[in-house]
């Protein structure tokens, strides 16, 4: 197998050189460089929205909040959650959501990605990232009373019937150490 031509990387530019067997005049005339994105080509990529879920754990219990006045599954329990706003890592998004919805402060060292849910609801496809949280500052309380009507702790092994179905699936998977599942397909 013939060796590949030497390459050099200079600030996002790939430079390709022909092997020395070609005459110098030809090598100079065919030396080229392209920006990496030009070389790779631009293509439209499939995009998913991402939601983050804070699974606050107290021994064998999980914190649940009842949704209200949101227009999405109102009356059912969920965990503190929300869509990523963009321009933030998922770990910081889940910390932000837990702060907004449950009035707790979480150190990034105290979270762990526990489950990824590939979900289809009402024709929309999205990813849910469920982070377990075992330590936080503050006492959990409803931080957005216009969006939540109740807060409770429930055993993860005996979740209430009025729980968002895909949250139930994710919590069941977390308790069984299952890292990935799909819902609604």
Automatic annotation (TrEMBL):
<feature type="domain" description="Nudix hydrolase">
    <location>
        <begin position="45"/>
        <end position="177"/>
    </location>
</feature>
<dbReference type="Pfam" id="PF00293">
    <property type="entry name" value="NUDIX"/>
</dbReference>
<dbReference type="InterPro" id="IPR015797">
    <property type="entry name" value="NUDIX_hydrolase-like_dom_sf"/>
</dbReference>
<dbReference type="GO" id="GO:0003824">
    <property type="term" value="F:catalytic activity"/>
</dbReference>
<protein>
    <submittedName>
        <fullName>NUDIX domain-containing protein</fullName>
    </submittedName>
</protein>
<dbReference type="InterPro" id="IPR000086">
    <property type="entry name" value="NUDIX_hydrolase_dom"/>
</dbReference>
């Amino acid at each position: 197998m013939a060796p590949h031509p030497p390459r050099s990387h200079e600030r996002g530019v790939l430079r390709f050189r022909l092997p020395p067997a070609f005459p110098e005049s030809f090598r100079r005339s065919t030396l080229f460089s392209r920006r990496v994105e030009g070389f790779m080509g631009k293509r439209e990529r499939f995009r998913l929205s991402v939601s983050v879920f804070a699974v606050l754990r107290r021994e064998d219990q999980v914190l649940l909040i009842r949704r209200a006045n949101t227009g999405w599954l109102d009356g059912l329990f969920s965990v503190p959650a929300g869509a990523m706003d963009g321009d933030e890592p998922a770990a910081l998004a889940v910390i932000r959501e837990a702060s907004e919805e449950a009035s707790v402060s979480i150190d990034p060292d105290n979270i762990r990605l526990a489950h990824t849910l590939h979900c289809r609801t009402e024709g929309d496809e999205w990813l849910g990232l469920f982070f377990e949280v075992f330590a936080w500052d503050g006492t959990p309380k409803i931080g957005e009373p216009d969006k939540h009507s109740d807060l409770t702790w429930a055993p993860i092994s005996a979740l209430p019937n009025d729980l968002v179905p895909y949250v139930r699936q994710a919590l069941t998977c977390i308790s069984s150490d299952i890292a990935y599942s799909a819902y609604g397909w």
